[in-house]
């Protein structure tokens, strides 16, 4: 039943205003009496002390149950629960129907027992109430406390005590309006213990304390169940609808309404609450309390004493290591202080409302993460606190997060020692407003959605990502502030954003490395960049100041008369335009400037303008492009799409700004500066800028027109549909500028122009990480904008004609008498060297040519020195050109190498052959010849991988048939007891083809129509980004994408899998889909990993099926925990040590992790598993760009098999890379990842698509090897490990790695010891790792 959030109805007679009486006198007539219900509770009163004995024991003797008719204490009285060392929990219920009013002391003696007090009618802790319990204390107005599946300690009936064993795990609320708990006293538990209040409504005007422990306050809607998420811990209370079978009998106790509870007679205002004429509870601070609320407020209107020696302690309401205040309705926090040494969580099903006053401040100081979530709204007005405290009211040593699907109103100052985020429930930027005074400092990244309101200042040591910003008023609250920019912010509607700052203007008061009460604060996770990315920026006449040590990416800027100042170390990119309307504009970048990247050809709005009828603002541009020209009329590389205008000057397209020896170009009050020409070079002749844009002349191709002599099957180099062309809008990263993504700095690349001075158009590599290759994105929109069409403008200067080069040109060197020809034997030896890929172009200092090194063949970058087979008077070399041709080079003694005679060039084009093979697939599918299509997919995909690996594919043919695949599957299923199927995924432009082959039966083919290939790949990339976004780690924002991808790729084959009882899938994925985290696909109820074992294979042809199970695994584990130029991996020593304890093997770390030692170990002992815990990258480009980091060098992926690894002797069966990542959306990087087993020469490999946290990797790897001892197939063992992570069976608690399947806990290294408890259920921790190659 839904919670009833209506205001409480007053059941008393009407009155104008009733003050609340909670004095001790009211309890004088009440006492503690046992219930005569057979529980056996015995009470002996000795003076003011009640000795509580007897009771009933559970079957295991660890739980003691008491039953009271009433339970009350007057001031000075003591309720003493007698225990013994065997009793873990004492549980008392009050069944008489009256609320408990406690003004005395509750204590436990004789044992270290937790105490539970349950009274559905309500509980009031008076001003003199206190606790003296050795362990944890819980007070609740529930109707029952649960044990196990459905065993209850009820208030309405007796239970079978013997069944109530174990630890309490839930609270049951049977009524629509559960009773309330009010605390006016000082409730405290001992260090490291837990204090929990669970009721329908909770009000605290006293104090709650759990030093180094946990405080949980939970307001519960009616007819609900509260589960304790972690057995034995009250860290996570989960509220769910009450199951029908959980109610034994109808509740016999009707809870008092909160007004009834608080108006028991007498008169005193010391409680901080009154009941008004409308029957509403009103706090002294002015807020109204409703059913389902949690309220923290002062008891009186007394002034806060900031000069008190205890500083903020005289206003402290709640303190502990970890504190969670969770309201079913509203969370009201007024004029009190909250302080934790760990995480502080402030949660509400409706609104979080925070207030201070002129006399009493509010503050929330967290030594860990500070999280505020109001599902409907967050309403913060805490400005007076800034002056009272002399610091920001909201401070976190870790991350500071405000999340709501409604308005987030934040009138206060915020200091985060980690990331600062304003989010909605999907993890995207939330809607942020501030009427008076927002200032944000973050020693990490800052993320928010749209912002509107008073002057805004944000400083971050990391990135800033925001939406549209509209500054409407000055920040008048800063008039007397010590902030260095208070005058700017208070005198005009101003915006100041700074990313990548070295020193924050107002750092958090708590140092992230300072121990507080024995707890070290965790260091923040960082995005790794300092970029500043926002949408449209508008001020009502105030300045706009955007500074970044990275790049600045913004949609458009309009200051309405205010000055504009943009400064960045990297590129500055503005999608549309900058308009100051009379204000001065200053733009400074150490790199390139691009303004108007999204401007349409028909839009003639100036790209940069300070025009105003009465004010003539100056425009100053300083860029670091140097030799990259700044062009007005071309924003693709360095320049503006349209004109630059001031009131007195104008520069119109198309105009290339000339360079001079002083680096300055001036026209009127427009100044453009860049790197000066060297003095010895004459300056370029200045060209008078044209005043109009000349139209493109018909019949004349601009310089970038594509050549016409294109071989069949290839796209022209500059054709926008050519995947090799950086201008292709479908290439990953070349999308139309959209709102910025949630991972900082992930801007989209743009299209670089031709290399200056080069008549032939050159297409630079499409690397989204290259500096300058970004398009700005507007915050948090979908990727729906159309591709950008460059404006059809012609330069006013006639360019020389474009001469297209021939395909695959070889060096043209005249034949001379010096020319030599290799003998057939020499040619064979040279060819063998090249084909074997024995050249390590990244590491020339280490010879990789073992097979022929004794004959004098040495590697020299991309040149093979074959002096051993040349004549004795000269050196002969063979140079393999980048286009695949081979040139013979000779050098006489003392001379440089000079090419003298190229070998005959080949017309073979590998990419064309691959495309022809794909065309064959389409032909077979069109005529419904599915079996032939399977063979052709095998051919096309195998060619793709082999070509990436540098193999000669000119004569490669595979003729594998469906029957052969089925026979192989049948044989391997018999060995391993599996039921396997191969799944081919082939994507065409507008449909998706799925083909499944099981050991028996017909081939299954499904065509999913209207699945656009570009949309599919974009969704795949976005899905991966959603999972890996650290700010969404506690959301399920990935679910919609996971379910859509499941519907496309898995659902059409689901019935066939179920009918044949398939349990293992071998995925053969198409281009762009090989980095899809398959494990996280979701059918709406389960993840794919919950249903199947699976692996990713390049093709069935290239897969090496293991002959026998890994019955006797032996692992060589090596890794590094520290690096010179990469982040440390502190868990690696524990990882490699732990896995060698799970299965037999040896480990080596840091200085012993060298190639030389690796080779030594491989040849000395028969290891069949190689485990490398180190940084690895699958990057764009050829395999030489991808590497594995050893202690002393990087080993490129192309040399993985041949660089002396000797995988075959003794044979390695499994290769594990536990800290690798793959570039998002890059097909070559995907080939490297999915082809890892082939390249390593092993049947199976295990690697990750992204870097997983050190703790997550440690947990997954240790569990994997633990499972490998008992599972015959690699994919079965790894799936079991993934499921253990998903189901919360592997956790980090109190600095230890715990697993339900392991007896011993693993202590974390000191660097990770105090980073809090972690549950690894999110796909980020387990979905990135994939079994590659054979699943067996």
Fold and architecture overview:
With 1336 residues, the protein is α/β, with parallel strands linked by helices. Helices cover 14% and strands 30% of the residues. The chain contains 17 helices and 90 strands. The strands form 9 sheets. The chain has a 52-stranded mixed β-sheet that branches. Strands 78-77-79-83-85-90 form a 6-stranded mixed β-sheet, with helices on both faces. A hairpin with a 3-residue loop joins strand 72 and strand 73. The N terminus is likely disordered.
Structural class: alpha/beta
Instruction: Please give the radius of gyration in angstroms.
Output: 36 Å
User: What value does the average pLDDT take?
Assistant: 77
C-alpha geometry: globular
Count, helices? 17
Outline the low-pLDDT stretches.
1-20, 22-28, 230-235, 246-250, 265-270, 307-312, 507-528, 684-876, 880-906, 1203-1207
Report the sheet-strand fraction: 25-35%
- Largest β-sheet summary: 52 strands, mixed
Helix fraction?
A: 10-25%
- N- to C-terminal distance: 49 Å
What's the total count of β strands? Answer: 90
Keywords:
1336 residues, alpha/beta, 17 helices, disordered N terminus
SSE arrangement:
Elements: E1 17-19, E2 32-34, E3 41-46, E4 49-54, E5 56-57, E6 63-71, E7 78-82, E8 89-94, E9 100-102, E10 105-109, E11 114-118, E12 123-125, E13 130-132, E14 137-140, E15 144-147, E16 151-154, E17 170-173, E18 180-183, E19 186-188, E20 194-199, E21 201-204, E22 207-219, E23 224-230, E24 233-241, H1 258-262, E25 273-276, E26 281-283, E27 288-289, E28 294-296, E29 316-327, E30 331-334, E31 337-340, E32 344-348, E33 351-355, E34 363-366, E35 370-374, E36 377-381, H2 384-389, E37 394-396, E38 400-403, E39 407-411, E40 413-416, E41 420-423, E42 431-434, E43 439-442, E44 446-447, E45 451-454, E46 456-460, E47 464-465, E48 469-473, H3 486-491, E49 495-499, E50 532-539, E51 544-548, E52 552-558, E53 564-568, E54 572-574, E55 578-579, E56 585-589, E57 593-595, E58 608-609, E59 619-622, E60 631-632, E61 639-640, E62 644-645, E63 650-651, E64 655-656, E65 664-667, E66 670-673, H4 824-835, E67 858-860, E68 863-865, E69 875-880, E70 886-891, E71 898-902, H5 910-926, H6 930-948, H7 962-976, E72 980-987, E73 991-997, ...
Parallel strand pairs: 4-7, 6-8, 7-10, 8-11, 9-12, 10-13, 11-14, 12-18, 14-20, 18-21, 19-22, 20-22, 21-28, 22-29, 28-30, 29-31, 29-32, 30-33, 31-34, 32-35, 33-36, 34-37, 35-38, 36-39, 37-40, 38-41, 39-42, 40-43, 41-44, 42-45, 43-46, 44-47, 45-48, 46-49, 47-50, 48-50, 49-51, 50-52, 51-53, 52-54, ...
Antiparallel strand pairs: 1-25, 2-6, 3-4, 5-6, 15-16, 15-17, 17-23, 23-24, 25-26, 26-27, 60-64, 62-63, 65-66, 67-68, 68-69, 69-70, 70-71, 72-73, 73-74, 80-81, 81-82, 85-90, 86-87, 86-89, 87-88
Helix pairs in contact: 5-6, 11-15, 15-16
């Amino acid at each position: 039943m839904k919670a009833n959030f209506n205001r409480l109805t007053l059941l008393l007679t009407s009155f104008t205003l009733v003050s609340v009486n909670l004095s001790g006198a009211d309890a004088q007539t009440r006492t503690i009496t046992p219930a005569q219900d057979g529980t056996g509770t015995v009470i002996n009163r000795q003076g003011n002390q009640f000795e509580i004995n007897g009771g009933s024991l559970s079957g295991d003797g660890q739980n003691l149950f008491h039953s009271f008719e009433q339970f009350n204490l007057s001031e000075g009285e003591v309720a003493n629960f007698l225990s013994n060392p065997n009793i873990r929990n004492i549980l008392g219920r009050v069944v008489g129907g009256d609320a408990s009013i406690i003004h005395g002391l509750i204590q436990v003696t004789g044992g270290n027992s937790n105490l539970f007090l349950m009274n559905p009618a309500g509980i009031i802790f008076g001003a003199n109430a206190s606790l003296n319990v050795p362990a944890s204390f819980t007070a609740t107005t529930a109707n029952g406390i649960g044990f196990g599946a459905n065993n209850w300690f009820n208030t309405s009936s007796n239970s079978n005590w013997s069944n109530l064993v174990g630890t309490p795990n839930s609270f049951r609320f049977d009524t629509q309006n559960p009773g309330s708990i009010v605390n006016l006293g000082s409730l405290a538990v001992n260090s490291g213990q837990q204090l929990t209040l669970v009721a329908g409504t909770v009000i605290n005007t006293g104090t709650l304390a759990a030093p180094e422990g946990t405080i949980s306050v939970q307001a519960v809607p009616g007819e609900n169940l509260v589960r304790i998420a972690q057995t034995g811990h009250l860290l996570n209370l989960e509220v769910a609808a009450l199951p029908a079978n959980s109610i034994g009998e109808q509740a016999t106790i009707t809870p008092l309404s909160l007004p009834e509870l608080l108006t028991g007679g007498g008169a005193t205002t010391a409680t901080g609450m009154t009941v008004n004429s409308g029957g509403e509870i009103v706090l002294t601070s002015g807020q109204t309390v409703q059913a389902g609320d949690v309220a923290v407020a002062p008891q009186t209107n007394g002034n806060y004493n900031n000069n008190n020696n205890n500083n903020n302690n005289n206003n402290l309401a709640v303190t502990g290591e970890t504190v969670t205040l969770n309201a079913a309705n509203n969370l009201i926090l007024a004029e009190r202080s909250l302080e934790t040494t760990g995480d502080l969580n402030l949660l509400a099903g409706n609104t979080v409302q925070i207030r201070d006053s002129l006399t009493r401040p509010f503050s929330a100081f967290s030594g860990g993460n500070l999280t505020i979530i109001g599902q409907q709204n967050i309403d913060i007005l805490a400005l007076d606190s800034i002056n009272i405290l002399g610091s920001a009211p909201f401070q976190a040593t870790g991350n500071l997060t405000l999340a709501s699907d409604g308005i987030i109103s934040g009138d206060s100052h915020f200091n985060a020692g980690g990331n600062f985020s304003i989010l909605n429930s999907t993890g995207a930027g939330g809607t942020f407003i501030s009427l008076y005074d927002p200032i944000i400092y973050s020693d990490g990244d800052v993320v928010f959605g749209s912002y509107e309101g008073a002057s805004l200042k944000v400083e971050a040591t990391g990135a800033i990502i925001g939406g549209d910003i509209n500054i409407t008023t000055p920040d008048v609250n800063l008039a007397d502030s010590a902030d260095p920019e208070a005058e700017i912010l208070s005198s005009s509607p101003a915006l100041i954003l700074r990313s990548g700052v070295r020193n924050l203007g107002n750092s958090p008061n708590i140092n992230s490395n300072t121990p507080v009460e024995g707890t070290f604060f965790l260091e923040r996770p960082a995005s790794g960049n300092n970029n500043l990315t926002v949408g449209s920026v508008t001020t009502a006449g105030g300045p706009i100041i955007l500074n970044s040590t990275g790049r600045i990416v913004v949609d458009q800027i309009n200051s309405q008369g205010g000055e504009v100042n943009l400064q960045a170390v990297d590129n500055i990119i503005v999608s549309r335009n900058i308009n100051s309307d009379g204000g001065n504009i200053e733009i400074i970048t150490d790199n390139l400037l691009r303004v108007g990247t999204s401007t349409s050809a028909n839009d003639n709005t100036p790209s940069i303008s300070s025009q105003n009828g009465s004010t003539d603002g100056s425009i100053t541009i300083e860029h670091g492009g140097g030799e990259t020209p700044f062009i007005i009329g071309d924003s693709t590389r360095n320049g503006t799409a349209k004109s630059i205008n001031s009131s007195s000057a104008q520069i119109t397209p198309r105009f290339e700004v000339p360079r001079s020896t002083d680096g300055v170009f001036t026209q009127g009050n427009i100044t453009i500066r860049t790197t000066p020409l060297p003095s010895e070079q004459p300056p370029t002749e200045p060209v008078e800028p044209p005043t109009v844009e000349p139209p493109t002349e018909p019949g004349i191709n601009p310089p970038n027109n594509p050549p016409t002599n294109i071989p069949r099957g290839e796209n022209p180099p500059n054709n926008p549909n050519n995947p090799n062309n950086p201008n292709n809008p479908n290439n990953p990263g070349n999308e139309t500028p959209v709102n910025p993504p949630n991972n900082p700095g992930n801007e989209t690349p743009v299209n670089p122009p031709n290399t200056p001075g080069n008549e032939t158009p050159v297409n630079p590599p499409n690397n989204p990480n290259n500096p300058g290759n970004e398009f700005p994105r507007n915050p948090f929109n979908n990727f729906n904008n159309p591709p950008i069409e460059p404006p059809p403008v012609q330069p006013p200067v006639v360019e020389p004609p474009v001469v297209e080069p021939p395909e695959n040109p070889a060096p043209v060197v005249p034949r001379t008498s010096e020319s030599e020809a290799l003998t057939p034997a020499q040619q064979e030896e040279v060819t063998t060297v090249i084909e074997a890929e024995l050249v390590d172009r990244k590491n020339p200092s280490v010879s990789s040519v073992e097979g022929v090194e004794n004959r004098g063949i040495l590697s020299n970058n991309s040149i093979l020195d074959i002096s051993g087979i040349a004549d004795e008077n000269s050196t002969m070399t063979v140079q393999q050109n980048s286009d695949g041709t081979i040139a013979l080079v000779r050098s006489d003694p003392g001379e440089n190498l000079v090419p003298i005679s190229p070998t005959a060039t080949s017309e073979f084009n590998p990419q064309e052959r691959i495309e022809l093979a794909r065309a064959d697939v389409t032909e077979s599918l069109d005529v419904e010849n599915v079996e032939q299509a399977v063979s052709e997919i095998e051919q096309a995909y195998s060619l793709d991988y082999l070509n990436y690996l540098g193999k000669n594919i000119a004569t490669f043919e595979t003729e594998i048939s469906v029957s052969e695949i089925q026979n192989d599957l049948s044989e391997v299923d018999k060995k391993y007891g599996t039921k396997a199927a191969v799944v081919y995924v082939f994507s065409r432009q507008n449909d998706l083809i799925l083909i499944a082959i099981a050991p028996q039966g017909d081939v299954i083919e499904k065509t999913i129509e209207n699945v656009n290939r570009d949309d599919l790949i974009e969704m795949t990339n976005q899905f991966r980004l959603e999972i890996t976004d650290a700010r969404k780690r506690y959301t399920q924002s990935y679910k919609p994408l996971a379910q859509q991808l499941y519907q496309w790729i898995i659902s059409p084959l689901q019935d066939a899998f179920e009918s044949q009882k398939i349990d293992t899938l071998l995925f053969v994925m198409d281009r762009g889909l090989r980095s899809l985290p398959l494990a996280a696909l979701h059918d709406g109820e389960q993840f794919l990993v919950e249903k199947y074992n699976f692996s990713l294979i390049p093709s069935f042809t290239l897969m090496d099926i293991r002959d026998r199970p890994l019955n006797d695994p032996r692992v060589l584990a090596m890794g590094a925990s520290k690096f010179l130029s990469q982040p440390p991996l502190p868990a690696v020593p524990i990882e490699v040590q732990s896995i060698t304890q799970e299965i037999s093997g040896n480990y080596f770390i840091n200085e012993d992790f060298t190639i030389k030692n690796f080779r030594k170990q491989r040849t000395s002992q028969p290891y069949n598993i190689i485990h490398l815990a180190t940084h690895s990258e699958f990057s764009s480009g050829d395999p030489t760009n991808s590497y594995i980091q050893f202690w002393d060098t990087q080993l490129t992926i192309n040399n993985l098999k041949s660089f002396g690894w000797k995988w075959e002797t003794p044979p390695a069966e499994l290769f594990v890379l536990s800290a690798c990542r793959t570039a998002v959306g890059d097909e070559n990087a995907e080939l490297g990842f999915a082809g890892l087993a082939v390249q390593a020469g092993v049947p199976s490999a295990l690697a990750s698509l992204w870097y997983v946290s050190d703790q997550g990797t440690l947990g997954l790897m240790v569990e994997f090897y633990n499972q490998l001892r008992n599972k015959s197939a690699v994919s079965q063992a790894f799936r079991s490990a993934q499921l253990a992570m998903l189901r919360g069976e592997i956790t980090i608690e109190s600095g230890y790695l715990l697993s339900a399947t392991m007896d011993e806990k693993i202590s974390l290294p000191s660097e990770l010891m105090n980073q809090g408890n972690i549950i690894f259920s999110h796909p980020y921790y387990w979905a990135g790792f994939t079994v590659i190659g054979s699943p067996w």
